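for ur thesis appendix - Aldo/keto reductase. copy paste whatever u need, i formatted it the way the template wanted (i think)
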Amino acid sequence: MTSKTLTVPAAALGTWAWGDSGEAGDGYFGSRLSESGLREVVEKAQSSGFTLWDSAAVYGMGRSETVLAQALMGYDRSEYQLSTKFTPQIAGDGDDPVSAMLEQSLARLGTDYVDLYWIHNPADVARWTPFLIPLLRSGRIKQVGVSNHNLQEIALADRILGEAGFRVEAVQNHYSLLYRGSERTGILDHCRERGVPFFSYMVLEQGALTGKYSPANPLPEGSSRAAVYNGILPRLRTLTDRMRDIGETRGTSAADVATAWAIAKGTTPIIGVTKPEHVDGLVRARDLELADEEIAELETLADAANVDTRGSWEHEM
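the 3d part is after this line
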């Protein structure tokens, strides 16, 4: 049972970085964003057919949702889809923390429903999943997804929802050339067999797979991602050089190749967009077909880099 069918585009738009304040060193990405700049991103994305926007209550502790609502102002609610998340780690102590967090998200997003509501982390699947059922029945959420869950946790959430006539309608995990845990543990196959969309996040590894950064041109100092990735950039050079080569033969970039790889694997990448040209890249990636041999070569090079990019918030898949 579902109350509204989710329209899944080739890629979803990530707004994690929209929660940054814009001041260097303040926020995960160290982004400098403006209201007019993000409005331009929205206009280009909407006109290009990318209309699913992904946020979370924890992104900037609500700032991402607020900024996203401002950027979407003037569009009819039927013209876009909203995806946001319940994060157990910041839940309150009330009788229904899930509903309380959702209501706060709805207020920030300026809407009375979200198309896709996720349990952000599997802190306690049996505890939190039942709270979603009345929200589905009321229509305040249209679909339920689970993020950062392993196969057993997905199955448990599905079983709990199934007792009320619903199911897990989407899975969102970290998945990239450098981190393929969801593939190796059967989660992608599980989703494919059940017709459940798999949303891949960190496909570009927060910029490390864009080809833009190198030991000579590291990620922005003072940002958390710099601390995670700058030390492994030398080991990624062979991979990113090959991605750049493949991109150049198609008139595109290494970043677009990484995104096209995720699409070719049957996933829906969630790509962080903070500039209009990021949307241009999604258009190119959507139309880029990689040969099976190229996919295999990139995966071999990624394995040879031998890096572990699992986030501090993730457990083993």
